[in-house]
Write a structure and sequence with these properties.
There is one protein chain. By secondary structure, this protein is an alpha/beta fold. It is 36% helix and 29% strand. It has 11 helices and 12 strands. It has helices at 42-50, 74-79, 97-105, 110-119, 124-127, 138-152, 168-183, 195-198, 218-221, 223-227, 235-242; strands at residues 2-13, 16-27, 31-35, 59-64, 67-68, 82-85, 92-96, 131-132, 156-160, 187-191, 203-208, 211-217. The strands form 3 sheets. A 6-stranded mixed beta sheet has the order 6-9-10-3-11-12, sandwiched between helices. It has a 4-stranded antiparallel beta sheet with strand order 2-1-4-5, with helices on one face. Strands 7-8 form a two-stranded antiparallel sheet. Strand 9, helix 7 and strand 10 (187-191) form a beta-alpha-beta unit. The chain is globular, with a radius of gyration of 19 Å. Residues 238-248 have low confidence and may be disordered.
Length: 248
């Protein structure tokens, strides 16, 4: 069953076409990956889905559970169950880890806050009173952000470079969190440059120059990481090849 669909989405920023007639369907309850070279349009796709400022004026449509969300605000999309985890987690000076997760947990009790921290490998006794600020490492903030998402139980979560700037232990905890998200029925869309992260997806989409170049099972799309490109008939890619440029 399709939970989210991009239909012929074209987006231009500063006079440059970033997404070019992009159409993708994401299946409910599955873990998907978006891969491709820098500038392919991966993060832009996530920003369009979330409705971030500067990414709402586009051609085409975005359907969520069969309904257009093109005109909805970020808050309205969040209330529908869509959330985005940033590549660089935000810092909140003066806001405790407890308050940050509790806000996401809504009506759940303190036990839920402690539970999700343990699920991402963080001791509640050591972290609940700490602030979500620069005193936490990037890996710690990513795990805390994932804990808040687990507490939130969204229907759809977008993860932008979940492995960026973290150590091996934190990465393993993130993989554990992916399993938990799937178990609770959350649809996951990961943006990644990592083969290790891709291996934890069930389906993958390869983007280049704002277009969908290939899609399918992870083993099929993983060839991109060996070849750094998958042959296609993309006219713009052919033009760049003719100019002697690296196509991706």
């Amino acid at each position: 069953m399709t939970i989210l669909e991009l239909k012929n989405v074209t987006l231009c920023l500063d006079g440059k076409r970033i997404l070019n007639d992009l159409s993708i369907e994401f299946w409910q309850g599955h873990i998907h990956a978006l891969i491709g070279p820098n500038g392919a349009g991966k993060s832009t796709t996530a920003n369009v889905i979330m409705g971030l400022s500067g990414y709402t004026d586009f051609e085409g449509d975005v359907l969520y559970q069969g309904r257009s969300i093109k005109g909805l605000t970020i808050d309205q999309r969040a209330r529908l169950g869509i959330t985005l985890a940033w590549q660089e987690p935000a810092r909140f000076e003066g806001l405790s880890v407890y308050s940050f997760i509790k806000a996401a947990a809504r009506n759940s009790g303190d036990a839920k806050v402690r539970e999700v921290l343990r699920q991402v490998g963080l001791d509640p006794e050591k972290y609940l009173s700490r602030s979500v600020d620069r005193t936490l490492s990037g890996g710690e903030r990513k795990r805390i952000e994932l804990a808040s998402i687990l507490a939130m139980q969204p229907k759809l979560v977008l993860l932008d470079e979940p492995d960026s700037g973290i150590d091996v232990e934190a990465l393993e905890r993130i993989f554990d969190a992916l399993k938990l998200l799937k178990q609770q029925g959350t649809t996951v869309i990961m943006i990644t440059h990592s083969l290790a992260v891709l291996r934890h997806a069930e389906h993958a989409f390869l983007l280049c120059c704002g277009r969908l170049v290939s899609k399918g099972a992870v083993d099929k799309i993983a060839n991109y990481f060996q070849q750094r490109c998958i042959p296609c008939d993309h006219q713009e890619l052919k033009l760049r090849e003719a100019e002697g440029l690296n196509v991706g």
